Amino acid sequence: MTPLFLTFEGPEGAGKSTQLRHLAARLAAAGLPHTVTREPGGTPLGTRVRGVLLDPALGIDPLPEFLLYSASRAQLVREVLRPALARGEVVLCDRYADSSLAYQGAGRGLDPGFLQAVTAAATGGLTPDLTVLLDLDPALGLRRAAWRGQPDRLEQADLAFHERVRRGFLALAAAEPGRFLVLDAARDEAELAEAIWRAVGERLNLPQEQASG
Ligand code: TMP
Fold first, then answer.
1. What is the distance in A from the centroid of ligand 1 to the CA of 31?
2. CA-angle at 79, arms to 75 and 80, nearest 5°
3. Residue pair 95/9 in contact by the 8 Å Cβ criterion
4. What is the CA(19)–ligand 1 centre distance, in A?
5. Which among 70, 104, 170, 208 is most buried, taking Cβ atoms within 10 Å?
């Protein structure tokens, strides 16, 4: 079994969670052991930190905001990600460190060098093998997210913030084309699922017919 660490990134309302479910179903059908998790969250600590981070009633400065995401991430790496990879599983994570670089770096204006140094310490250098970036116009994404209910603390930030986040993600992808698969999130859901499955199949060296099935 080949351990593989996959992350899903993108702005609000891009359909990450939906695509993650499609991929998990394909992995299950192919009989490949996998773990699905998310950030912030994924552990009892992370779930509590998530509640704090997304609470619209709380004012949180950019630095403590980043440190809280990093705390959740450090716990997730130790409690969930590394053990699952050590078991040889495929790990699917809904957001990871690229979100901090895009939201707290490009979005909030924190220094990228500082973010990378803290992230390296928090993760012990664990980086994804493949990152699916579902790119979307933030105006459309925020409308999609609003259908889900009351906006959380991050969704309430203004459109200019979310546009910086989107550009931040695209810059990260341009800097590491070998790691990122950038897809237009406005495309048909089934087509996107197919493109993601093909890329994952290649990384797992699945036989062609299994990867396209
Ligand atoms: P989600 O709604 O996609 O689960 O993500 C929660 C929110 O947290 C979303 O608005 C993106 C934001 N976020 C950051 O700002 N920095 C981070 O490092 C992570 C993981 C998420």
1. 30
2. 110
3. yes
4. 17
5. 104
Spatial neighbors of 51 by CB under 8 A, at least 6 apart, are none
Ligand 1: distance of its center to the CA of 210 in Å?
Answer: 33
Q: What is the CATH number of domain 4-211?
A: 3.40.50.300
Residue 163 structure tokens: 């546009």
- Locate the ligand 1 atom nearest the alpha carbon of residue 53 and give its number: 8
Q: Is the CB of 40 under 6 A from ligand 1?
A: yes
Residue 211 pLDDT > 80: no
Ligand 1 atom with the smallest distance to the CA of 100 is 18
pLDDT per residue as tens digits for the range 3-49: 999 999 999 889 999 999 999 999 999 999 999 999 999 999 999 99
**84 Cα to the center of ligand 1, angstroms:** 22
Give the contacts of 79 (CB within 8 A, at least 6 positions apart): 42, 43
Looking at per-residue confidence, does 94 or 209 come out higher?
A: 94
4 forms beta bridges with: 90
The CB of 103 under 6 Å from ligand 1? The reply is yes
